[in-house]
Amino acid sequence: MKSMRVLLLLLTALLLSPRTHAEATASARDILNRVDDLYRGRSAHGTMSMKVTHPNYERELVMEFWSQGTDKSLIRILQPKKERRTSTLKNGNNIWNYLPKVDRTIKIPSSMMGGSWMGSDFTNDDLVKEHRMAVDYDARFTSSSATPKDAIEITCTPKPNAPVVWGKVVVRVRRADLIPLQTTYYKENGAEARRLTFSDVRELGGRKLPTTMTMIPVDKPGHSTVVTYQELKFDVSLPANLFTVAHLRN
Fold it and tell me: What is the DSSP letter of 42?
């Protein structure tokens, strides 16, 4: 009887464990979709700051941004004054940059999608977000000695012929509420390339989300980019012509 009681206690503990509950209520694909869509809505509008740190200098920007669904966004620099009105437009899989100093609009070619966005450690491809992890990667729950006890870890490996550059992506979210903690990107040879961490969780626009994202390229000592959301509203009314090349000059 005692052994049966112990067995029942062990089974109960397993059934109620955080990992079992999380995996039962959300698949790996569900979690990846949630991470991809955390800052999205039918539409969104807000402001954010970006601090770029390199070994020889620091650069800080304040930006206003708008988005609609998953394929339209506009980001416009407010500060510093010398870069005010410099803008980036995404419409579908296309990106344009507007440079007010020379009054030119430049379309970013596909060959430059891996290039730096606004001199930061984020790429043009990060901005476009053309690829979704749940679509282009096979995902499975994993665990290692480095996985925090309060985190769920998902390892993503590219599907055959998927148009992605990473050999592997490892995503970690909090067990309690599936808030993202860290995304680590690996090269095809297995070497770690860069690490994106999420912090400062609070409510913005009626959602509980990390308001700070820090991108660190591990092969570039002294480099980092910190993006902090200051204001964010979802499902707002936006002008019909907002996401057009013509509007970039306004």
Answer: S
